[in-house]
Amino acid sequence: MDRKIRVAVVGASGRMGLEVVKTVLSEPDMELVAGVARSTGPVDLGTLVGLAPCGVTMTSDVELAFVESKPDVVVDFTGPHSAFSHTSLAIRHGIRPVMGTTGFTSQDIEELDKQCQEKQIGGIIAPNFSIGAILMMKFAAQASKYFPNLEIIEYHGDQKLDAPSGTSIKTAEMISEVREERRQGNPKEEETIEGSRGGYYNGFRIHSVRLPGIFAQQEVIMAEPGQALKIRHDSYDRAAYMPGVALAVRKVMTYTGMVYGFEHFID
Ligand code: NAD
User: Fold this and answer.
1) Complete domains list, the chain, with CATH
2) How confident is the model at residue 267 (pLDDT cuts 50, 70, 90)?
3) CB under 6 Å to ligand 1: residues?
4) What are 207-251's pLDDT values in tens digits?
5) Shortest CA distance to 9 belongs to which of 263, 222, 248, 219?
6) 93 catalytic, yes or no?
7) Which of 124, 173, 238, 260 has the fewest CB atoms below 10 angstroms from its CB?
8) Residues in contact with 161: Cβ distance below 8 Å, sequence separation at least 6, in sequence order
């Protein structure tokens, strides 16, 4: 592209949104054209993230921001309640959605893909933009062909609302594409305390740990008689997601349809 990619950030005052604003302001081929959040008021987005003023003021109406700033791409990190409506709204305006927000159902994704196809634009819904986490998922899926007995343990901060995490669900889906469905463990197993064995997914278990001070970690433990293989990823900071977000902003300019999962961008 011979001009800068015009980017709007929705959820711009949030924990992820602030990092995205910083990233867009620092990428030479991107131009920040709008920032939307519900509660911050009309602050300059550059000032908000501790950089020089950038001349873009925070607003609170998503559709108005789309109409007035005419972005090529919108990066959205808001919340599950607005995941579908924001994506659909962006597509209607011909704006390519890069959705970090979690909470889409498979029917939502199918419908949004149709909308993207009709408008002839690209989009991505990615439960995890961290390249390291994606590699962890890919390696786990690859290994599950040879180590089909496995459990997932994911660790997040104690204020996280949903369990298990979007990343663990995506990992489970990727594993299930490779590993034949089979129930693990003793068929007569009983829980004396409800939930002790974790959530059930296609024959294996997902465990969610929630503790203060933890950012985001996941371990896939696989074992066969006499050996175990542990594949683990640790993120310490939201900066971990930003190379992936920047790559997604560039990529969505190049194809048509809705991609689900950042792993499709990593060979
Ligand atoms: P947060 O609560 O810190 O920020 C949410 C932001 O969205 C705030 O600016 C809020 O004002 C804004 N907002 C909420 N609803 C809105 C609406 N209807 N219209 C306009 N603005 C709205 O949350 P966070 O920690 O930044 O996480 C945001 C989302 O991103 C969550 O769904 C979380 O699960 C997800 N997440 C995804 C990834 C990934 O890699 N895909 C990584 C971390 C978090």
Assistant:
1) 5-125+239-265 (3.40.50.720), 131-236 (3.30.360.10)
2) confident
3) 10-17, 36-39, 62, 77-80, 82, 100-102, 126-129, 241
4) 999 999 999 999 999 999 999 999 999 999 999 999 999 999 999
5) 248
6) no
7) 173
8) none
